[in-house]
Amino acid sequence: MSVAGLCQVCEAAQASHGCSRCGNAVCDDHWNDAAGACATCVQGRQQ
């Protein structure tokens, strides 16, 4: 997935990943490579 713009979680860093679960564009800090999803989706799954 091609992404552009700011991370939709922190709104400060450049987005470099697109979450296939929620569609958010996120930076490296908010991407969970092992899960293949953004931190928001991974956190929601753990609750």
Query: How many structural domains?
Result: 1
Radius of gyration over C-alpha positions, nearest whole angstrom: 10 Å
What would the average pLDDT be, to the nearest integer? 92
Poorly predicted tracts of residues: none
- Separation of termini? 27 Å
Strand order of the largest sheet: 1-2
Please provide the ordered H/E string of secondary-structure elements: EEEEH
Number of helices: 1
Strand content: 15-25%
Protein name: HIT zinc finger
Organism: Halorubrum yunnanense
Set out the fold topology.
Layout: E1 17-18, E2 25-26, E3 31-32, E4 37-38, H1 39-46
Antiparallel strand pairs: 1-2, 3-4
Note down, in words, how this protein is organized.
The chain is an alpha+beta fold and about 45 residues long. The protein has one domain (about 1-45). The chain has one helix at about 40-45, and strands at about 15-20, 25, 30, 35-40. Strand 1 and strand 2 form a beta hairpin. The radius of gyration is 10 Å and the shape is globular. The model has no long low-confidence stretch (mean pLDDT about 90).
